[in-house]
Amino acid sequence: MIIYEIEKDIEGTIHEDILMNRLDQCIKPVYNNFFGLEYHASVTLYDNTFLPCVVFRHLGKAIELKFNSLHAKVYHGTIQRTLLHQDDVQKDIIERIISQNNIIDLSDIVKIETCVYSFPEKLRKIKFNPTHYFLVRFDDGSFENFRGSETGFYEVPFGKEFENIVEIFSSTLMLQNGDIIELKNYMDWKNNEANFKKIHFGKPFFTCYFGGSHEKDFEEKLAKTRINFRE
C-alpha cells in the first residue's frame, strides 16, 4: 500500500507533518528500546532505486541519545573498574556512527509504502536464548525456520505473510523430514546443520531521520500532528 508519493516532475520534497500523519494512519509503529517509536517501510528514491527495508526515526531523539553518550562516563572491567578516557569513548561512538548507519535523506524519497519484511510488533518479544533460532507456525498450519535478527526485518517465506503468524517457538527448528527439535545449545544446531529445512535470515535496512531537534521524540511530534490535522 502506498503511504506517501510525490510527483518526480514537480520539484519538491516530502512534507514532514503530512508524512507523520500518513505514518500514523497507515503503519503500526515499533517501539525501540533506544529510539522510542519508529516506523518501518519500503521506499523508492528519485532515481527509481527501491529500498525494501527502511526505518524512520526521530532526529531529535537520535541527537539527544548521541549527545548524552558522548558525555557519559564509561567504565571498563567488573572487579576493578577503570574509568575510560573520554577521548576514547567519543572516538568509539563516532566510529560506530560512521560505520554502522546506512542513512538516506528524506529529500531523496519519492514514494513510501508499507513493508512486507517487517516483523509485527506483537511478534517481536522473541527470546534469543539459548540460541538465536526460532520456528514460526502460520495460520494454515505450516512451519518456517528463522534466525533471529536485531534489525526487525526478515526474509519472507514464499507465499507467506508475517501477519498470518500465530505462534513462535524460541530455540526450535524444523528438519527437512518435518521433525521439530529444540535447540538446547549450539551443538544441537551444529549436529543437525545439514538437515534443517530452509532457514530465513534477517535483512539489512536503511535509516531515515526526520523531526525537529526541538522535539523530544515521535510521541511529541504525533501529538502536535494529530491536533493540526483535526483543525
From TrEMBL:
Q: What is this protein called?
A: Uncharacterized protein
Q: Which organism is it from?
A: Chryseobacterium arachidis
Organism ancestry: Bacteria, Pseudomonadati, Bacteroidota, Flavobacteriia, Flavobacteriales
